Amino acid sequence: MAKRSDIQARAAMMRVRFEAAGGQVVDPPLLQPAGTLLDLYGEDIRARAYVTSDALRGEQMMRPDFTVPVVQMHMRDGAEPARYTYSGEVFRRQEHDPDRSNEYVQVGYEVFDRDDSAAADAEVFSLFALQLRGLSLRAATGDIGILIAAVQGLKTTERRKAALMRHLWRPRRFRALLDRFAGRSPVPASREALLASEDPMGFDAPMIGKRKAAEIEARIEALREDAAAGPISDTEMVGLDSLLAVRETMPFALEQLRDVAVDLPQISPALDRLEARIAALAARGVNVHDLDFEAAYGRTSMEYYDGFVFGFYAERRPDLPPIATGGRYDALTRQLGNGAEIPAVGGVLRPDLMLEIEEATQ
């Protein structure tokens, strides 16, 4: 395991490189308001974060990442365009894997720029690739925006599309909902009995558990609407299945996805953005013909990304988490911007893992 002083030295060196690329150094506070993070991630983050509280500031979390506070800072008083870099500790509980550190150093780079999203994506990816040059790593890329466009353009009810969007980052739940909405899985007997009842409420109590009667009535009405809706078509289901199965190098992946767009034409604008990104990466010297693209990549661990996503992995060390991850998070700026928004992309690296890999190869 690398020494703390060596990790800090490597982090400082990497941050200097990002400064040379135009990054302004920022240092968000170690303690972050818990409310914002809970709103973004839900209660799941509470189980992985270190939480404290005091009478004046309320509930606080030890910094679980940098991206959210950097976005908040920029949306509050940042100039445009802007580039930021940072390095420092983040804290995550690792109760399911005690061998993984619950405190580690991240180095990051974030770009806020309205002019050319494809160029900004390529800038971030290529800078990360340069930081990692010399290490035996596999780069993976994807684009959450393509799947988002596919779901939002389905010929089904808005309620169903909203349910699918909520579970986009939970593949098993997403698949279960998709199969149900397509009529591929049976309706639970309890739901059928509920909807067949002439008076499904059948009581006068103002509440059941923590739910009021009005909330239950609204839920029953939603179930009735869903039952009355036709299934998602076989054509759209074949398109979604084909989309999620795409795993190729970038140019061939784009070719396959263009074929998928025959069944899912709503993804064509997202594919145009992918094509522009491929060209921008090639212009920065990235060998796109050897760069992997997976349409389903990022769905289990990158919840605030909504477009381009990437990661670098040590294939010879499958026990290690990603050495670097990043992507586009335009929607996050809208959530934290109080009505304002700006296209944004960035990522983080783990200098401790880089040093560990280097030591193992010496």
Automatic annotation (TrEMBL):
InterPro entries: aa-tRNA-synth_II, aa-tRNA-synth_II/BPL/LPL, HisRS-like_core, HisRS/HisZ. Gene3D superfamilies: Bira Bifunctional Protein, Domain 2. The keyword Transmembrane does not apply. GO terms for biological process: histidyl-tRNA aminoacylation. It comes from the Bacteria. The gene is hisZ. Coiled coil: none annotated. It comes from Falsiruegeria mediterranea M17. Homodimer. This is Histidine--tRNA ligase. Residues 14-351 form the Aminoacyl-transfer RNA synthetases class-II family profile domain. Pfam families: tRNA-synt_His (PF13393). GO terms for cellular component: cytoplasm. Keywords: Glycosyltransferase, Transferase. L-histidine binds at residues 65-67, 92, 106, 110, 299, 304-305. One of its GO terms (molecular function) is histidine-tRNA ligase activity.
